[in-house]
Amino acid sequence: HRHLLGIKDLSPSDIELLLDRADDAVAISRQSEKKTSTLRGRTQINLFYEASTRTQSSFELAGKRLGADVMNMSVASSSVKKGETLIDTAMTLNAMRPDILVIRHASAGAAALLAQKVGCSVVNAGDGAHEHPTQALLDALTIRRAKGKIARLTVAICGDIGHSRVARSNILLLNALGARVRVVAPSTLLPAGISAMGVEVFNTMKEGLHGADVVMMLRLQRERMQGAFVPSVREYFRYYGLDAEKLKAARDDALVMHPGPMNRGVEIASEIADGPQSVIQEQVEMGVAVRMAVMEALLDPRRNPEGVAG
Ligand code: CP
Asked: If you measure from the C-alpha of residue 287 to the centroid of ligand 1, how many angstroms do you get, rounded to a whole number?
């Protein structure tokens, strides 16, 4: 079975193929009749151990638009609450013969572990601070549609890089497609060895945003921080929150992105989130299209990019 566990498994041509397919899915999603029969008769199970608004709902809609039967496992009211393990839960669902299992989990490697155990395709919808591949694909689709290309664009990824699977998947994808990737954060929010990922590192927004084509803000993940370093919201916004003044350093036509959920007034000012350069709502729309493209590539043998595999 084919899986999508991380961007690291995809070649540049796999990525481009998925984005091309997603462009078609955008067109389908903009019609009044949105349903196709590509995955008719197939069963998709969404298994989300962490909260989600965008990812879970867009995977559900994507499956439905492809004609699949979609089941959302309600983890909060499941036997996980009685102590059932991830593997036992997955094996139980696997016995019901799904074709695709979409998993979000707080542990890095959870999706890869399931892929070894179940007899269906597995899609990683976010595993700890490791990868969130469909987020990076939808971000790339948003950029490509707005700018016409990814190669040679300067993309500044700003904020809580250390806790961010979104940052990690985006760095891998943007580098694969030839963008110039920067990360902008206080050193306390940068993971060790970040430079080895092929990014330029900046500690101030003014330097990091200078001349940028894309400014990608990240949520400050305070819930993942322990004791010692939890920045005060006021200080964080002052130095790293994206407001009109800081955005001036980027190109006038720079895109402003945020994967959501946003902390307004923490990492981004409301006037910027809702302003003319923001493509945050487009990102959400592209999320459905990219997930349609991914699931179609995994399950429809006529449309399999080579590298979409575990
Ligand atoms: N961007 C993202 O993954 O959002 P959710 O946590 O709401 O799914």
From this structure: 10
